Amino acid sequence: MAATLKALHSLRVGRHQIPPWYHTLNASIHHTPFLIYRSGFHSSTTASEISQHLTETCVAEPQWTCPIHVPSPSVSLHHARDSPERFDAVVSSRDFLVVPARVAHRLLHYNEVGVKMVGAYPMGKLWNMCYGDEEE
After folding, report:
1. Best CA proximity match to 79, nearest among 3, 119, 136, 41
2. 60's torsion region: left (phi>0), alpha (psi -120 to 50) or beta?
3. pLDDT digits (tens, 9 = 90+) for 44-53
4. Helix, strand or coil for residue 78?
5. Looking at the whole model, is its pTM more than 0.70?
6. What residues pair up with 24 in beta bridges, in sequence order?
7. Residues near 123 by Cβ (< 8 Å), separated by ≥ 6?
């Protein structure tokens, strides 16, 4: 079954520039905003349908799918809780998030049951995990 996407003109888009915090560069080196496409997917769209759509359109290469195990949907755009410019987004399972490379982020908590995240990256690129340590 094909992914059921909403028309681009009907989407609300949130844009947030994430500044550096200690050893985490965030978007400061490339000035690419963190994007939230609100309700970009219909509620019946599955993670595998989204992965298939990304693969077929060559937009990005899905590399992992992960169920959300954490018990209000919220994601923080800084690992550092003390950051004065920390941005916490409230998101739903229908939202599409574009997190630029090197932007620190983590899931704070989530209410929806059975939700999965799809990690997709530019074609030919691999994901990696950095924690903002000085040696990274």
Report:
1. 136
2. beta
3. 888 888 888 8
4. coil
5. no
6. 21
7. 58, 60, 61
